[in-house]
Amino acid sequence: MIVVFSLFLLSLLVVTAIAIVRSENLFSAVMLSGIFSLLMALNFFILDAADVALTEAAVGAGVSTVLLLGALALTPTEERRRKRERKVAATLVTVTMIFLAISYASFDQPRIGDPDAPVHRHVAPWYLEQTPELIDIPNVVTAVLGSFRGYDTLGEVYVVLTAGIGVLFLLSAGRPGLLPHRREPRIESSLKSHLIPHVVGRVLIPFIVLFGLYVQFHGEYGPGGGFQAGAIIAAGIILFALLEGEGAALKVLPPRVLVGLAIGGALLYLLVGVACMLLGGNFLDYSVLAADPVTGQQIGIILIELGVGLAVTGTLLSIFHAFAAREQ
Amino acid sequence: MAIVLDALSWAMLVGGALFVLIGGIGALRMPDFFTRMHASSLTDSLGPMLVLGGLALQSGWSLETVKVLAILLFLLITGPTATYALGHAASVAGLKGGTREYRASDPREPRA
Fold it and tell me: What is the pLDDT of residues A258-304, one digit of tens each?
């Protein structure tokens, strides 16, 4: 049954991808890419990767759709028609070659869920065995992400921060003073005149932010963590900005604060690592943070997840406001 | 008692699936945008009500039931709102209801 369902979802993914490529209306391409992300989230969920599914749904279908729509407001909605020679032969050859290469590679792949697959025999058993002993939290994914592979996650946070800085630089190029001394938005764009979405949205926002906090601090026990929580909270605040106008959202969280959140979150992660070194351990070895090594690990993971959440929220909201500022 | 609950929950699950299916067929087969939206949005409220209600009956009095009911509440609030937003956006954008033939036969419409 689950095989039928995954095949159905995977074929829908291919259909959606082709529709995105073929669509000349950029607006429908953006909407289709949101659908693509939702389908992808379902696929991840079928593969038992609930943490990844949550991230994909929040970032892919939620925030990035809004960001793409923001970008779309700066461009025409139709793809520019240009005369292009259709290189049918070259395309066919390329696609066939890639198809053959991937098919050939897939012969060597172990069956899905095969317990003897290399990926399940490498470090995964060690993580599964040692997590209860060393860290004592139920969600092994969080243990791997936060502690065992803390370096990787640190790198990811700095990738997010760097991407955010890059977008801010690109969007404020040639317009000095966009950040942090931004001029007041001239047009107050909001949905205040649309009574029903306005009221319903206002009711939902607190619950979205509450759910984000739950995902943030429940990451040790269930699917979730800083990345997902950051995206969910950012989505809630973006909804607020859409409902009440961008100016109202900027009054609550000015650009200065957002940039501070992003940098502060990333720094918090780094400082936890440095604190471990100062206390006599290795970089990001949280065992030294408390008298009991297991408690130390838990404190360390909660702190770095907080850093991740702050950094992701700050970065996503900064990017959103940078796009929104260009629209006016 | 357990058998009655089980039968009831399965009846709700199948009924919900049927409504979602009808909504899907309606969204494909109805002649214009607003009737399509009508078909899919009504069944999108009733379908989840039956499906999630059936699931709640399956799980009995537990935390899962509370979660399922929370999801149902969320869907019942957001679904109609999304439908309203969609219909409102279409009407603001100037989309006319009815098929081309219908509009052509309507004396109030200016002839194109």
Answer: 999 999 999 999 999 998 888 888 888 888 888 888 888 888 888 99
Q: Which amino acid is at A6?
A: S
Residue with tokens 């989505």: A235
Chain B contact for A205 (CB, 8 A cutoff)? no
Rounded Cα distance between A92 and A110, Å, is: 29
Residue written as token pair 């607190």: A206
With b for 16 or more beta-carbon neighbours within 10 A and e for fewer, the A128-138 pattern comes to eeebeebbebe
B81 to chain A, any CB pair closer than 8 A? The answer is yes
- ipTM associated with this complex: 0.76
A296: closest CA among A311, A313, A279?
A279
Quick check: A200 and B81 CB within 8 A? yes
For B51-83, what is each residue's pLDDT tens digit?
Answer: 999 999 888 888 889 989 999 999 998 889 889
Report how far residue A234's alpha carbon sits from residue A314's, in angstroms, rounded to the nearest whole number: 8
Is the link from the previous residue into A223 a cis peptide, with omega within 30 of 0? Answer: no
A273 contact partners, CB below 8 Å, separation of at least 6? A150, A154, A283, A284
Residue A200 Cα, gap to closest chain B Cα (Å)? 7
